[in-house]
Amino acid sequence: MEDPSKDEVPRVLKVLQALKQASHDLQTRPGHNSDKSNSPAIKALLELETESDTILSNDPKLSTLSHHLTELKKLVESLQETRGHGLRSFLTRRVSTHSISRLAGSIKSEIQAWIDRESVENLARALREPLINEDELVELLIQLEERVSQGFNRELQDLVLKFKVFSLLESILCDPKCSKRVREHSAFAIAALIRFNKDVFVGQVLMGPTIRALIAMGSPHSIQVLCSLIRSIRSPLVDEIESNGEIPKIIGLLNCQELEMRVLAMDCVLEIGYYGRKEAVEAMLKEGLLKKLMDLQRSELGGNLIDLGEHNEKEEKGVSVGGVEGKRESHQTKFSNSHPFASCVARFAVQLEVGEGLRQRERRAFKQEILVRVREASLSDAEAATVVAEVLWGSSP
């Protein structure tokens, strides 16, 4: 079990998952046929116990699991020997059943640790040879993402650090010889590790090539991961983006032909606006962000939410208060979904106003600069008046 061949890896993990499920079933339903040897959960775990001399004894990391299984066998045998309907028999069975449930929980934890060791070691091996089996590598990357998304676990973190998984993921992300699919799943795994324990892994993101690689890839998934990292790491990550000169590349994505890319680039701009300090906001404005946002807002996928508010007010006359609120929310949601760039100038201004990156004095100065640039980029006085009103009063109708 300690060094399985590549063909055995999926089978080993499936067996371990089945054993973990058996221990879970036994933990949640310890009294269900627990006095009978044909209980599926009991049978599966006791079969592992009988094989413990050959499977578990050679690995010191599995000694605790072997001990738990031996204890389980003793408890089951004791429970089977308890007969009768008296009070003593009843209490003995209750105590034994509780002990089995508690022990099953410990067995479940040990099997999960076993699964983690197998999975992380197999992933590290696959990441070192990424061109051999793409499907297997993607499956392992998805497993890692799902596992770390379950919450912090010290032993799992130690495994990730021991096998240098983060550095291997970063190498894959930056390797143009790897397929986009593998690189994107590596990016998802990196983002999951940041959420898993930001304190440990954030330094590697800030000092490494991850951010540049995500922006250079320029795919919807890579920008989605970038937005996720900005939300997780906040201002320090935006500082790094700005200092590396990556702001122009992000603003340039607003010109993409692909709608999904433009929408995600807009999301990224809004995140930078919320968390960015003065230098990052200045860099975006210098790249002509306001003109691009004005172009997007006057496109067929844009529009003004302030106009929608006026339209709603006309429709709402004579409708009950509850009906008004529901109708207003329905109209706005439907309009926003079909017009992703509606009121995008005001939405950007709101991000600066309520965000974390700017001082109060800087917020006021940028708001005035946005108003000036809106008037310069407007095609008519009416358009300027509408957008300026939205910026001054917010984009919500």
How are the secondary structure elements laid out?
Layout: H1 9-28, H2 40-50, H3 52-55, H4 63-81, H5 87-128, H6 134-148, H7 154-162, H8 165-173, H9 180-196, H10 198-207, H11 210-217, H12 220-233, H13 235-243, H14 247-252, H15 259-275, H16 278-286, H17 289-297, H18 305-316, H19 321-338, H20 344-354, H21 360-377, H22 381-393
Helix pairs in contact: 1-2, 1-5, 2-4, 4-5, 5-6, 5-7, 5-8, 6-9, 8-9, 9-10, 9-12, 11-12, 12-15, 15-20, 18-19, 20-21, 20-22, 21-22
How would you sum up this structure, described in words?
The chain has 22 helices and no strands. α12 (220-233) packs parallel to α15 (259-275) and α20 runs antiparallel to α21. The longest helix has 42 residues, at 87-128. It is elongated, with a radius of gyration of 29 Å. 76% of the residues lie in helices and 0% in strands. It has 397 residues and is mainly alpha-helical. Among the domains are: 9-120; 129-217.
Features of the shown structure:
397 residues; mainly alpha; 22 helices; 0% strand; elongated; disordered N terminus
Order of helices and strands: HHHHHHHHHHHHHHHHHHHHHH
**Percentage of β-strand residues:** under 5%
Which percent bin holds the helix content?
over 70%
- Total strand segments: 0
- Ranges where pLDDT stays below 50 over 5 or more residues in a row are 1-5, 32-37, 314-321
Question: What's the rounded overall pLDDT mean?
Answer: 85
Radius of gyration: 29 Å
